[in-house]
């Protein structure tokens, strides 16, 4: 990675910031992207990189210029995790699709001509275990992350013989702001086995060194994927049990909240 040019989107905190720090420590020149300009500048100053704030979907030209005219590695890390199912509005679904999928497509569209001409380049997609499995409580997240994995697979299938390496990063829970603000589903499924962002960054660098497509900071995700493929109905049944447990927790919390409200009203009554 020494002296190579790296772009990391969504790098104002969490996994993105950890990736930026890891690449910089390995000797790379890093462009730090985030919608929050202040956070992007803070991380860039910390690692001796350059801040390129803005929408991750449109960042490649500015990042390329900031890095001296080339991009060797692009980390499509920015993502959102809305909750809900079919009842979620079109705007929610559209935002998940745009950030979690189309930002990857737009970056690849900009980068591939340069990479194919010189015969090398690297695309790192932060996908999530939800892309290999699913995530209870969030259809937009699960569906868009499946699509992000599918796009990364397609890139690898199509361009690996032309020097383009692709890596799909598929962790479960990671101790980030996104997890801290997670819904009950996130608490139930992810928090007990959550790891640090730095653990993810180390796994990414190891996968790059080995030229390995799947990056599994939680190795058990690979076993779950095998179980899902080999006995899909058993896997769906197990996940449905998680869903029922989630519904029980949510119902209990609603009831507890109702009791608390009733108690408060009784105390406030004259």
TrEMBL record:
Pfam families in alphabetical order: adh_short
Stretches assigned to coiled coil: none
Keywords: Oxidoreductase
UniProt keyword Oxidoreductase, yes or no: yes
Region Disordered, residue ranges: 249-270
Family: Belongs to the short-chain dehydrogenases/reductases (SDR) family.
PANTHER family for the chain: 5-KETO-D-GLUCONATE 5-REDUCTASE (PTHR43669), ALCOHOL DEHYDROGENASE, PUTATIVE (AFU_ORTHOLOGUE AFUA_3G03445)-RELATED (PTHR43669:SF3)
Designated name of the protein: SDR family oxidoreductase
Organism: Streptomyces glaucosporus
């Amino acid at each position: 990675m020494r002296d190579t040019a790296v772009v990391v989107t969504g790098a104002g905190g969490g996994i993105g910031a950890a990736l930026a720090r890891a690449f910089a420590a390995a000797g790379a020149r890093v462009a730090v992207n985030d919608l929050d300009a202040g956070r992007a500048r803070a991380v860039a100053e910390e690692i001796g990189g350059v801040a390129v704030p803005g929408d991750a979907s449109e960042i490649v030209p500015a990042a390329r210029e900031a890095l001296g005219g080339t991009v060797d590695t692009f980390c499509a890390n920015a993502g959102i995790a809305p909750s809900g199912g079919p009842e979620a509005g079109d705007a929610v679904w559209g935002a998940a699709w745009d950030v979690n999928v189309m930002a990857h497509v737009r970056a690849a569209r900009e980068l591939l001509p340069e990479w194919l001409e010189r015969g090398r380049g690297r695309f790192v997609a932060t996908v999530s275990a939800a892309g290999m499995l699913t995530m209870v409580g969030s259809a937009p997240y699960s569906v868009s992350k499946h699509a992000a994995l599918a796009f990364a697979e397609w890139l690898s299938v199509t361009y690996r013989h032309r020097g383009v390496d692709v890596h799909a990063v598929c962790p479960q829970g990671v101790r980030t702001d996104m997890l801290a603000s997670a819904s009950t589903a996130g608490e139930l499924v992810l928090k007990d086995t959550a790891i640090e962002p730095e653990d993810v960054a180390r796994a990414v660098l190891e996968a790059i060194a080995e030229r390995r497509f799947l990056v599994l900071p939680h190795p058990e995700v690979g076993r779950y994927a095998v179980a899902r493929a080999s006995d899909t109905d058993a896997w769906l049944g197990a996940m449905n049990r998680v869903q029922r447990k989630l519904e029980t927790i949510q119902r209990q919390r609603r009831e507890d909240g109702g009791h608390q409200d009733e108690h408060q009203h009784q105390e406030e009554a004259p």
